[in-house]
Structure formats: C-alpha cells, structure tokens
Amino acid sequence: MSTTVKDLTESNDLKSIPSEYVFPTNPEVVEEAEQQIPIIDYHLLTSGSPEQRSQIIENLRIACLDWGFFMVINHGVPESLINEMMNLCLSFFDSSPDEKSDYVGKHVLNPIRCGTSFNTSVEEVYFWRDYLKILVHPEFHAPLKPQAFRNISYEYCKRTREVAKELVNAISESLGLEEDYIEKALETKSGLQILIVNLYPPCPQPELAMGMPPHSDHGLLTLLAQNEIGGLQIKHKGKWIAANALPNSFMVNIGDHMEILSNGKYKSILHRVAVNTKATRVTVVTANGPSSDAVVTPAPDLVDCENYPPLYRGMKYREYVELQQSNQLHGKSCLDRIRV
C-alpha cells in the first residue's frame, strides 16, 4: 500500500509537502457566491401538501438546471447516526496498517478498497486524501473493524438510499417524465450504491496541494455529509465558489448518468476539494447509481432527432465506473468519451 497522507503527516514534523503532491499550477481563485446554493426541504417533498410537493419539484428543476448542486435539509436521517458514522470512519483510518492492508484492492469494483490519492498506479501527482470505498448495494459489505461499523454503516446507507430514491423520483417528474421512470428504466432498486469515506489531513502547504481535483461524479446522485471543516468548491457560471453546508444537511450533486438520461438538460457539475493547515476534513459520501448492468441512454421522451438529437452513446453503468476509476481523474473526460 502506498504511504497514506495520514501516515505522512504523523510520521514526522512535516514542514513542507513531498514533491509528488505538488501541483504544477495554482488552482483558480475562489470567489464568493452571488447567490446561495439552492436548499431543498426534503420533509415538504415527502410529507407536505400536494402544492408544497409541486413547489419543491419546481425548486429541484431550477437547482438542477442552474447549479447541478443543492443542499437537502430536514432529510430525516438522524444527526446522531451521521455523527456515529463519522466517528467510526475516523476509527477505521486510525487502525493499524496491517488491518487496513486487508482492504488494499487492485480492482476498482472490489467490495472494499482503501488507499490514498485516487489512482496512484497512473497518477504523476498525488492528491492530499486517503479513502475507504465500499460497495453497499445491492450486496452489502463492511470491514470487520471497527466492530460497530457494519451495523451503523448498513443503517446509514439504507437511510441515505431512501433519500436518494425520493430525490430521483422528484427529479424524474421535474423532467416531465413519470415519477418512477428513472427507477424502472435504470433498475435503481438493484442500483449500485458505493460508500466513500474521504480523509483530508492538515497540509503544511495547502496552496500547493489538492484534496481532489476538478471532476464530476459517475451515477445519478451523490449525497455528501461532512464534519465542520469546509473545503468543497464547485464550478458555477465559470467561477469556483466555496460550497458551505448548513449543519445537518446533505450536499447533493447531479452525476454523469443523470446528465446522460436527461440528454444534457441537467448537467453534472465540476467540483474539487481544497485542504487547510489546521484541521482534518472528513466526508461520508454515498454515490447512488443505476443497476450495474443497465445501459444508460437519453430518455426517449427527451430526444427529438431534429431539435434534440441524442447527445450520448449508451454504455453499461459497470463499464463506465471501471473506465472512470481506472484512469486519472480529470474533469469530465470520462463523459466526453461517450458524447455523440
């Protein structure tokens, strides 16, 4: 296993970062957002009046069109469960190298995989990030330690999958499709859900390093919970802005496969992670996608060959994930490969 960033920061009194973590160009400047990232009240979507639900669906439509990112509040996932999940993830990263070495996987779809950066086998510059990735649906997996990890992560992933399902149904409606169109077309009941835990330790030279570079996510929707340490930045109208989350909210972003299904109407958004000198940032992410064997193409109702021809070629979801995860992470390069 490559030396993790956590090991690097704890091994000595680190004053500067190793050369393999230095990016050749400084990141573009981050600006203050002129508008707040859209906020979606999940409770009103699922338990409000028909009028309130319709308004939330319209809010979602605007958020997907203009931002590709939104915050979900009142989502019903207990704050105590999120905090337990965060603490157990930190405990995993605190476990011994021998214990973690059991999960150093070579294939991107290994059930449990931990490592550093994104794909050190092909990268020339590493990211200031350690990770744990687990396939949790349709078949659930979990590391043996910490002992409570299995039960807590199972409950957490089940609850976030429910939130993602309701959001996908509402987004389906916002596109003018049947509420269950995406669920049926992409077989999301057996959809691939991946739990990704990211650890970004303090960095002595944050201006030279990147936690994660600009990229979009595979799948339909990504739900992100974080500790109180910021760092997420999103590309909005050509500018990088800091995405500061409200307490006990999920940051949610459109994935590449929602862009494909909507025939480019709702676009996946570039985002990146900056690091800092003072504190460790932890994020718990669930990537929610189609069934592994689903071939994702634009919805026929959103294609008019004269005015709106199909913009993407079909590809099995599993093949897309393997393609993205086996290469360097660079913008929307994977999606670009299947544009018509």
Q: Gyration radius, to the nearest Å?
A: 19 Å
* Tertiary shape: globular
Strand elements, count: 15
Report on the biggest sheet: 8 strands, mixed
Distance between the termini: 39 Å
Poorly predicted regions are none
Secondary-structure element sequence? HEEHHEHHEEHHEEEEEEHEEEEHH
| Oligomerization | single chain
Q: Under CATH, the topology is which? A: Jelly Rolls
Notable features of this structure?
Jelly Rolls; alpha+beta; single chain; eight-stranded mixed beta sheet; five-stranded mixed beta sheet; 340 residues; 15 strands; 10 helices; globular
Entry summary:
It is built from 10 helices and 15 strands. It has helices at residues 5-11, 42-47, 50-66, 79-94, 97-101, 149-174, 181-185, 256-261, 317-325, 333-336, and strands spanning 30-31, 39-41, 69-73, 112-116, 130-137, 193-200, 212-215, 221-226, 232-236, 239-242, 250-254, 271-273, 281-288, 295-296, 315-316.
Structure description:
The protein is α+β, with helices and mostly antiparallel strands. The protein has a single domain (23-336), classed as B-lactam Antibiotic, Isopenicillin N Synthase, Chain (Jelly Rolls). Helix content is 30%, strand content 21%. It has ten helices and 15 strands. The protein has an eight-stranded mixed beta sheet. It has a five-stranded mixed beta sheet with strand order 1-10-9-12-7, with no helix packed on it. A two-stranded antiparallel sheet has the order 14-15. β9 (232-236) and β10 form a beta hairpin. α3 crosses α6 (149-174) and α4 (79-94) crosses α6. The chain is globular. The model has no long low-confidence stretch (mean pLDDT 93). GO terms for molecular function: metal ion binding; oxidoreductase activity. Belongs to the iron/ascorbate-dependent oxidoreductase family. This is Fe2OG dioxygenase domain-containing protein. Residues 190-290 form the Fe2OG dioxygenase domain. Keywords: Iron, Metal-binding, Oxidoreductase.
